[in-house]
Amino acid sequence: MKKELKTNSLGFTLIEMMVSVSLFSVVMLVSVGSLLSLIDASKRAQGIQSVMNNLNVALDGMVRALRMGQGYTVANGGHELSFTPFGKDPNDASQRWVYTFVEDNSDPLEARGRLYKRYKPDGLSSVVNVPLTASEVDIDFVQFYKTADIPGDLRQPRVVAIVRGKGGFAKIKNTTRFDIQASATQRLLDL
Q1: Which one of 5, 61, 91, 131 has the lowest number of neighbouring Cβ atoms within 10 Å?
Q2: 3-class DSSP state of 92
Q3: Closest Cα to residue 98, out of 122, 67, 137, 72?
Q4: What are the two backbone dihedrals, phi and then psi, of residue 89, each rounded to the nearest 5 degrees?
Q5: Domain boundaries, the chain
Q6: How far apart are CA 65 and CA 39, in angstroms?
Q7: Model's pTM, two decimal places?
Q8: Distance of CA 190 to the CA centre of its chain
Q9: Three-class SS of residue 63?
Q10: Mode of pairing for the β-strands spanning 158-167 and 137-147
Q11: Confidence category of residue 102, pLDDT binned at 50, 70, 90
Q12: What CA–CA distance (Å, rounded) separates 137 from 170?
């Protein structure tokens, strides 16, 4: 008489356990890799958005001041724009604001590729040079243009600024290039 082997199917074999653990490990490895990639991409996007927001705020403040100002003068090959801000004496040259682009690093106190605002604050006897853009914004080109600067010509003076460059943090491998044109028309009537 033959003996029949009874197989008890209440558990898993060692091979079944190894296969299921291996499959689970592969799926988790792919999932964690994808999650880490998404987190890295999100950090990059937030960093670039922060840099672009800084640039937009700087240019918006500059345009707002230009609209309220008067007596626009473009100098230094179009890299420098000066004007008398609202509420200041247009006949006093020390009260003028100057927006300038530092293209080279000849001055150790000024970083290359940044926009600066040079002015004399109330209560101080000296002129200060304040950077408008963050160090993460690397500006390659700035050009200021002015139009209709003849008093009484029935056209309001206007300033156009063209700014080109790139932005991003040192930790971020990718940077974003930008080309921005901003314009301001003098609000004070030029009749």
Answers
A1: 5
A2: coil
A3: 72
A4: -75, 115
A5: 31-185
A6: 39
A7: 0.71
A8: 34
A9: helix
A10: antiparallel
A11: confident
A12: 11
CB-count burial class (<10 Å; 0-12, 13-18, 19+) for 83: buried
**Which DSSP letter does residue 36 get?**
H
Above 60 in pLDDT, residue 109? no
The token duo for 111 is 């970083």
The answer to whether 143 touches 170, Cβ cutoff 8 Å, is no
Structure tokens that stand for 73 in this block: 């003068």
- Alpha helices by DSSP H, listed for the chain, are 14-68
Place of tokens 């200060």: 128
- Mean pLDDT of the region 39-53: 83
Write down the H helix ranges in 69-189.
none
Separation between Cα atoms, residue 57 and residue 82, nearest integer Å: 19
- Six token digits for residue 59: 């240019």
